[in-house]
Amino acid sequence: MEEEQQHPQANKDNATLDMLLGTEPSDRGLAELGRLIIRYRDFPGAKEIKKKLQTLLAQWKLSEETLFEKTRAIHSQGTVYRSREGDQEDWF
Questions:
Q1: Sign of the CA dihedral 14, 36, 2, 7?
Q2: Fewer CB within 10 Å, N or C, the chain?
Q3: Is-contact 88 79, C-beta < 8 A?
Q4: pLDDT value at residue 12
């Protein structure tokens, strides 16, 4: 039996999900949801975060397949993670 692990980004990711819950989907929100689903897909643990991911998918009436179709289109534009000041990506 695998021991449940705490992801090093769990606190930050939980805060992101709490912010997204109760909002309407935006390009940034869809990209964040897709990113977090991928991050936690095979992670052993983070049950609370995984539950919030599924809740958000249901709230936004999306399947994972539909979400990833939308996020591929968003990322093809290449602007969702750009800062307002220019070309630097905001996760640096």
A1: negative
A2: N
A3: no
A4: 96
